[in-house]
Amino acid sequence: MKPPILKSSLRLAAAALLAVVQAASWAADGYVTTNEAKLDAIFSQAGFAAADRIDIRFNSQTSIIDASLTSIDSFADWNKMAGLAVNLDAPVVNMFFVDKVRWCGDPGSNIVGCADTPGNLMALDSSWAAHASFGGNLLAHELAHNLGLGHVLPNNGSNLMNPTLSASFALTAAQITTILGSALVQSDAQGKFIYDPADRCAGCGARARQLGHAAAGRCAAGRRGTRAPQRSRPGLMWLARWLSWLSLLWGVTLAAAEPLPRRDLGGFSLQLPATVVQQAGGIDSKAGRLHGDGLLIDYDLGLYSDPLLNRDGVSGYEEKPVLVDGRPARLVRWRQQDSTRYFIGLHLPELRVTPMGPIRLTLLAQTSEANRLDDIQTLLLSLRLTKH
After folding, report:
1. Interval 281-290: pLDDT, tens
2. Distances from the Cα of 17 to the Cαs of 61, 123, 202, 379, in angstroms?
3. Distance from chain centroid for Cα 269
């Protein structure tokens, strides 16, 4: 029996709570963690006008006994899960709590959630949803995908839609405008609301783990060597100097031509200094950070990658089309206003098409030295895609 639809007198009825389990006895209390108070706080934060604050409300939980859906490992699993949703064509949200989410457009070992965007269907790793620090943000992040938001870079841990989890959940004015424009946000006499007919979950087993980024490393500059002057016979002095400069020029030319080692980063590769460290993570995509040798580069590979369009708070924004590994891409640059930070990024809008949408790739580098931008651009344009 399907759970009843919330009446229109309720505010944002926060989706159906659906738990997928292997046996009825497994559907213990606490398996579904709604984090309702945290969701209310996120979707009524200071950026929302008083009349636009969204109340998140949940219907009763429903348990589904289906061992084949305790983890989401493929589109076939996702499609089967969608067949169990409540009123998928109505403006309501269906939250499925499962043991593991290992796929979101692409497979990934780090994935803890996935959502249609825009849409009204999501799957959540129930252990992560119950995490004391990050659980509410995980639900809000996936709900925001349903409401039409993608990821944003740089991945500085301040925005709800950064591709890795943090304790922060800020939304920009532009993001709030997108949310309020979603058909999922309804109104009644009490105000705006979003509806979930029933939450569903599948046996959760993943241990919570914190994702984060270390600060970019710095390299100390080496000292330039000197030589003691040498005597030479007057007749051979200029020849010796000429040969010396020719040798030096030849050495510099060879050094400049020698490529940096290529690093496989999971789905793509770059030519990077050996000292650069990769930190991989992500919520529903393959995201991470590269740092070291004065570099700081965020990347995001998946359904929701930031297209790096012009945005508030930047100056000198410029973009140009380029080809990277034979694929169309956009190369962008800007400077953060009231800051000495310079950004240069690369966005590939379609690596391949999946039933949930195109897989995209975005890299965004930042530096405080404007004269390094050309070198970083060369590094970004060295990108090659891993055969899929």
Report:
1. 999 999 999 9
2. 5, 11, 11, 46
3. 18
What are 96-112's pLDDT values in tens digits?
A: 999 999 999 999 999 99
**Can you spell out the DSSP letters for 85-152?**
-SSTTSS--EEEEESEE-EESEE-TT--EEE-SSSSEEEEEHHHHT-TTTHHHHHHHHHHHHTT----
- Widest CA span in the chain: 103
Q: Are the CB atoms for 8 and 110 separated by under 8 Å? A: no
The CA dihedral of 112, 117, 120, 122, to the nearest 10 degrees, is: -10
- Cα–Cα dist 23/337, whole Å: 56
**How is residue 218 written in tokens?**
């710095």
- How many of the other CB atoms lie within 10 Å of CB of 133? 11
Distances (CA, A) of 273 to 258, 291, 296: 12, 10, 12
Residues 6+ apart with CB under 8 A from 227: none
pTM comes to 0.79
Kindly state the tokens that stand for 230.
């040498």
